[in-house]
Write a structure and sequence with these properties.
By secondary structure, the protein is an alpha/beta fold. It is built from ten helices and nine strands. The chain has one domain: Alpha-Beta Barrel (TIM Barrel), CATH 3.20.20. α2 packs parallel to α9 and α4 packs parallel to α5. The structure holds zinc ion (ZN).
Length: 278
């Protein structure tokens, strides 16, 4: 079984525009027209077709509120699609939302198991008080919080969530909430696609999960294995970053890694199922 822990879809009406906008931002960021390629049309049906083609059984959708006003619509859509036809969804929140704690409680009451934050698209550094407040309340109420981490193609000059700043800002929260026993923080992209050496130095061994979105096809096997082995397969989540990567190719790549059957099962679905309580 394969559970893809990091995918994106948009409501039908805006999917085409959203994909174009994100491609344009990436192209502007790195000055290359083909900076990002979309492997689906960005819709929910498009993701389901990709899963069918790619041999993916379950996918988690990660919505991002790029403005505080999007809170209602983003979470309404997330709860509509959550738990149906092999699709699960986290909720979204913006660091500038009012009544952060009430809003996180609301996300939990919708039955969503976590929330996605994107420090770059939300222009909010990982050690900003606003992000820390969100993370702390999530730990308190048992909601998972997933951060985009490291390099982002649309903002190549500024890293909003670099490994060292994350480690420094979060250590006291990990102790305070005994995260070692049950981690609630998830860092995408193995902590940062362009800085896996810093992942090894600052993130491996912390009480966090890390997902493999946007790393499987880009990173050499020996580096992937170093991160997996030094962090532990029980805290690594298979993820593609669809539509920006091909789910099929990511599955094939993961299946080609020299890992044990037990590690394979944890990474491909065991850890994800534990987080989602399914
Ligand atoms: Zn993503």
């Amino acid at each position: 079984m394969f559970f893809d822990f990091h995918t994106h879809v948009f409501p039908d009406k805006i999917a085409k525009m959203a994909i174009e906008n994100l491609k344009n931002m990436a192209a502007k960021g790195v000055g290359r027209e083909d900076a990002m390629t979309s492997h689906t049309d960005g819709t929910l049906e498009g993701l389901k077709r990709s899963m069918e083609r790619g041999g993916i059984d379950l996918s988690l959708v990660l919505p991002v509120c790029t403005r505080p006003e999007q809170f209602e619509t983003v979470n309404r859509y997330a709860s509509e699609i959550n738990g149906k036809d092999g699709i699960y969804s986290f909720g979204g929140i913006h660091p500038d939302c009012e009544d952060i704690e009430g809003k996180l409680d609301y996300i939990k009451s919708l039955g969503l198991k976590g929330v996605k934050l994107h420090p770059a698209y939300q222009h909010c550094f990982i050690d900003d008080e606003r992000n820390l407040k969100i993370a702390e309340h999530c730990m308190k109420i048992g909601l998972y919080v997933l951060f985009h981490a490291g390099y982002d193609v649309a903002f190549p000059d500024t890293e909003y969530c670099p490994p060292d700043r994350f480690e420094k800002a979060f250590s006291h929260l990990f102790e305070k909430y005994n995260e070692e026993a049950h981690p609630h923080v998830i860092l995408a992209h193995l902590g940062g696609i362009m800085s896996l050496d810093k992942t090894l130095d600052h993130l491996c061994g912390l009480p966090i999960y890390m997902d493999t979105a946007n790393t499987l096809e880009q990173i050499p096997t020996n580096m992937l294995m170093k991160v997996i082995r030094s962090h532990g397969a029980d805290r690594i989540l298979f993820a593609s970053d669809s539509p920006w990567q091909s789910q099929r190719r990511c599955r094939e790549r993961l299946a080609s890694l020299p890992i044990s059957k037990a590690e394979f099962e944890m990474i491909t679905y065991g850890n994800a199922k534990k987080i989602l309580g399914i």
